[in-house]
Amino acid sequence: MQQLNIKKLLILLTALTVCGCGVLLGMLWLSSQKADHAFHIIVNEEEPVSAAFRDMYAQGLQTEQATRNVVLNPADDKAKKNYEAANQSFHEDLDLVRAKVQGPLKDGLPKLAELWDQAHKLKLEVMALAGEGKTAEAAELLRSKETPVWRDIKVVLAELTKLQDKRSAAILADYDSASKTMLTLALCGGALVMLLMTLACVYTGRRIHRPLTGCVDFSKRIANGDFSAELDIRLKDEIGELADAIRVMVDKLRKELAFSQGLMSGVAAPFSVFGPDDTLLYSNQAMTDLMEIPGKPEDYYGRGSGEFIFGEKSRETVSTRALREKKPLRSDADVETRTGKKRHVRISSSPFFGAKGQLLGTISIWLDQTEAVEAKLQAERAKTEGMIHAAQQLETIVEVISSASEELSAQIEQSSRGTEIQSQRVAETATAMEEMNATVLEVAKNASQAADSSAGAKAKAAEGAQVVKKAVESITEVQRKSVVLKDDMAQLGKQAEGIGQIMNVISDIADQTNLLALNAAIEAARAGDAGRGFAVVADEVRKLAEKTMTATKEVGDAVSGIQLGARKNLENVEHSVATIEQATDLANQSGEALTQIVSMVDVSTDQVRSIAAASEEQSAASEEIGRSIEDINRISGETASAMNESAQAVGELANQAQTLRTIIERMKTGG
């Protein structure tokens, strides 16, 4: 399976974030829409129908009571107006129910309307008889015909109310089930999105941060001179390309360094390289052999030139003066080795500088002229002991010096060519460093673009959080309306209880009236014939009181039914309020989940920015290595220049040897 590069990986992470937020927002929006639709049906369809049925029952009771009041008092205009208002309200409720219900409920409405019309005609007839003074006939009609019809109306209303309550309960149950299902799916979806985001962030961090840190650490070790370090990163993405480029660069540096070290080791002439603080940076074995310095040259790296050459820290050397005066110096000197032997040497010390003119150090070449000086001394002694014998010896010595000079000249020429090759390869390495630096800059650019993409994903997630916030506000508004509806239902229950109290008072009045009628009948019986008329009236009053008690009991039963229905509706509304509160809490939790997603996207953006910063740091390290290579190139140039000067010195030595040979030839011929 082909591994994704960093750019594609970051684009995939951003797309995953946006899609996850979109799915979560879609589920929340769908849940909110379904909840709003169900609540709209409950509040605007089901509850008005239930209230209409209860009101029709109450209006029926009102017409019954008004009719009986007219029978008791035909001049009671208020009772007649109450009857008309109750009849009109009943028809309005009936029209509302017809417009909103379907099925069995609507099928039962024609029967209800027919019964109501019958009862209405009978009640009008009863009130007309009462108005004509036919109270007994009116009461008989009310008892025998109208009351049975009213009882049928109550039965039909009870059946319709029961059907409506079942319908409302079913809709509420469906609403609860759908809300719980959608909210469960939304929470599961949010949890899944958070899990995927967490795994993606962890994977991205391991995929990018670790190898990039490895590249940075490797580059720092190389910059500090640890060329034994190894970069074990093998990836097929931008970081893998960067690691490959770094490995190629370091391999070239190792080869060039090995070549330079081999070249320096191959130079036969004794020489040393000192830093700007006059401490030893490099020396070949020939230098330690010349001065009979014990141990290896590496044992003295970091020590001063006087301590390295003569074993005296405070002693000044030609290299010290060249550093101080910042110019090449040449000197012939008689020195003493570490074992006390005398040496006559010619010392050439030249400072070398960096690209910005900063002093980097000196290279010091020592040529041993001890044999030449001794030969000169032997030649002078030969003048007194025998010019010819001395000349023969001098000729042998001159041959040796000439041969050594030629060999040294050849070695210096070879070193010069090696230095030129080294300069070329260092230039190639500098070019490779520039290409690698361009690769690093491209990685930093891609990381910056990925950071911008992550910032866009964060903005989209923040917009999603605002949408969820608005959804929570809408659900909160629905909750507020439900609480208002709950309060209205509680007020309706209180009003029904007030009606019950009034009916209790009416019942007490009827009891008192019945008692008074009984007392009046007793007094009429005592009065004999004179009290017969009064006894008849008392009997009628007693019957009327009994009817009033019966009607009061029926009204009390009706009020109890209203109270029971009000309590059921109040419980349903309270259940709806609780469900909406749960939906509000879950929506708030969804909003918090989105906020956490925004935070995670923010963390992802910070990681990408860290990657960009690390890439910039890598670029800086690459530039530092490039400058080091330029310094090596410059040092190689200075070394080549010093080698040329050495070649000139060796050439002069060869010329002197040739001149000495000519003189010896003249001495042999006596000239």
TrEMBL record:
One GO cellular component assignment for this chain's record is: membrane
SMART domains assigned: HAMP, MA
Name the domain of life: Bacteria
GO biological process: what's one of them? signal transduction
PAC domain ranges (all copies): 329-381
Residues forming the HAMP domain are: 206-258
Methyl-accepting transducer domain location: 397-633
Pfam family for this entry, one: HAMP
This chain belongs to the protein called: Methyl-accepting chemotaxis protein
Its lineage opens with: Bacteria, Pseudomonadati, Thermodesulfobacteriota, Desulfovibrionia, Desulfovibrionales
